[in-house]
Amino acid sequence: DNLLEWPFSYRVTFSLLDQSDPSLSKPQHITEPFPPDPNWKNFQKPGASRSSLDESTLGFGYPKFISHEDIKKRNYVRDNAIFIKASVEIPQKILA
Q: In Gene Ontology terms, what is one molecular function of this protein (predicted)?
């Protein structure tokens, strides 16, 4: 956490991976960008000053990522498993 700049402001992208056989049809992954809001408590630097009992910082969701109906249309669930890819665009200066 000390290597990151706070509040967290890097672009995050979530992808629900289509597990269909690529030799039968082109996978149709569901991808949504998630622009962080530096004003949210969830994007502030974690530390001892944050109470673990503060429910407003326990996490957040993505309620309209995909409907239950749409998730059944393709092979997003296969063998009782789903795969969600999270990508974070990290500035080069942090990677160096």
A: ubiquitin protein ligase binding
Q: Answer yes or no: are the C-beta atoms of 32 and 13 closer than 8 Å.
A: yes
Q: What phi and psi, each to the nearest 5 degrees, are found at residue 32? A: -135, 130
pLDDT at 32: 92
**Residue 88 near residue 10 (C-beta atoms within 8 A):** yes
CA angle 85, 6, 32 (to 5 degrees): 25
Q: What is the rounded CA–CA span in Å between residue 39 and residue 58?
A: 15
Q: Confidence class of residue 43 from pLDDT cuts 50, 70 and 90?
A: confident
Question: What domains sit in the chain, N to C, each tagged with a CATH number?
Answer: 1-42+62-96 (2.60.210.10)
